[in-house]
Amino acid sequence: MTHNAADIKVNMMNTKLSGTVAIVTGASSGIGRATARVLAELGASVAVVARRRERLDELVADIEGQGGTAIAVAADITDRVQAEAAVAKVVETFGRLDILINNAGLMLLGHVVDTEAEEWERMISVNQLGLLYMTKASLPHLLVAASDDVRGVADIVNISSIAGRQAWPNFAAYNMTKFGVNGFTEALRQEVTQKQVRVGVLEPGAVATELVSQNNQKIQDELAASDAAAIPVTLQPEDIAESIAYMVTRHPRSSIAELWAMPTSQA
User: Fold this and answer.
1) What are phi and psi of 202, to 5 degrees?
2) Residue 235 forms beta bridges with which residues?
3) pTM of this prediction?
4) What is the pLDDT of residues 9-48, one digit of tens each?
5) Considering 174, 185, 200, 206, which one is annotated as catalytic?
6) R_g (Cα) of the chain, nearest Å
7) Which of 134, 196, 205, 219 is deepest in the core (most CB within 10 A)?
8) pLDDT per residue over 183-232, tens digit each?
């Protein structure tokens, strides 16, 4: 069988993460789902983590149908015990852990005076506590992977938001969670990067995902009437997945600490 130059190029691309194991949280839809597919295409064995088991099973079947390797881990990462068990299952199944993508997120918007405190608690649990629990459980395994000769490096990528850089009315609590993600990421980066665990934050602008639909109709209507509606072409989940792939496939000497990904049409 002969191969043309394009075939050879694709095959080379698909071996960049060969031998590695990745966890992607919030993998049942949007950015997480797209990221799991891309990492599998690059050769990683991927553990997809979320609460919606049926969607995870569909994603695993899709990845395996394309020749990749994946497992579904149904878990609520806001529960520390479940988060720890999810990481343990991945390491037990694949024997190692090289990449953690903390993607799971919740965006519940509204005026501070009108918002139910329970909505803040839900966002803090997903956006911050879930990220903390998954990171703490994963770090010992990532440090081991960083010291071996598979790649000589391991990766954590935390998905934040432009809302981690800029604040707006109605976004107060969401802003707080994402500013916090940025601060945690930078502090952790300084703790472990010299041990070859790269830690980076990715801050997307407007992306076509389910985030807005998690809000009540009143908030969705307000957003539709705001400047956000003036963005004619938002990013797609695949755009962010490509950015994540870029961060985790750099040479071990190169670490991307922060990546700000915006739609071309978003100011």
Assistant:
1) -115, 125
2) 207
3) 0.89
4) 334 345 799 999 999 999 999 999 999 999 999 999 999 9
5) 174
6) 18
7) 134
8) 999 999 999 999 999 999 999 998 987 565 565 555 555 555 555 555 65
CATH code of 8-261, in short, is 3.40.50.720
CB 63 within 8 A of CB 44: no
Residue type, 146: A
Both structure tokens of 17: 């993460």
Measured distance CA(76)–CA(64) in Å, rounded? 24
Strand (E) or helix (H) holding 183 = helix 172-192
- Say how many CA atoms lie within 13 Å of 148 toward its Cβ: 12
Alpha carbon distance 191, 147 (integer Å):
16
Give CA–CA dist 260/121, Å, rounded.
Answer: 27
Using CA atoms, how far apart are residues 188 and 143, in angstroms rounded to an integer? Answer: 13
For the chain, the domains span 8-261
**Beta 99-102 vs 69-74: how paired, if at all?**
unpaired
Question: Rounded to the nearest 5 degrees, what angle is found at the Cα of 238, between the Cα atoms of 187 and 161?
Answer: 35
Dig out the tokens for 220 from the structure.
């969705």
Is 246 among the residues known to form the active site? no
Query: Which amino acid would we find at residue 203?
Result: E
Phi-psi region of 152 (alpha: psi -120 to 50; beta: other; left: phi over 0): left
pLDDT above 70 coverage of the chain, percent = 85
